[in-house]
């Protein structure tokens, strides 16, 4: 048995470290994997979500149980199965647009405004300052 561990330690040896360090890393990795597999799902919040889904499912089942009872209580319409809505409001009618003839030429833009020759548009800089 010690020979098997020595061979495994030699195969897992990390250059520059003692031979047993690779075996320790492998054991730590196996322990972390085992802890991850044995961890209860409630740690990840799965249990809480499952409880919420179960509560919603129970509410839906209760509504489905009550639905046939509500359908039996409603009077059947006499209009051949069609329900006529009493609160229908006609949509507002848009005012008619004036019928103007479409323009055949594009609009002419205003002429470009050129600055006067006496005014400068940019500031005058005197750099470096003269002394």
From TrEMBL:
Pro residues biased stretches: 92-113
Keyword Transmembrane helix appears in the UniProt entry: yes
Transmembrane segments: 20-39
Keyword terms: Coiled coil, Membrane, Transmembrane, Transmembrane helix
Coiled-coil residue spans: 43-70
Keyword field contains Coiled coil: yes
Region Disordered, residue ranges: 71-131
Compositional bias of kind Basic and acidic residues: 117-131
Protein name per the record: DUF2339 domain-containing protein
Organism: Plastoroseomonas hellenica
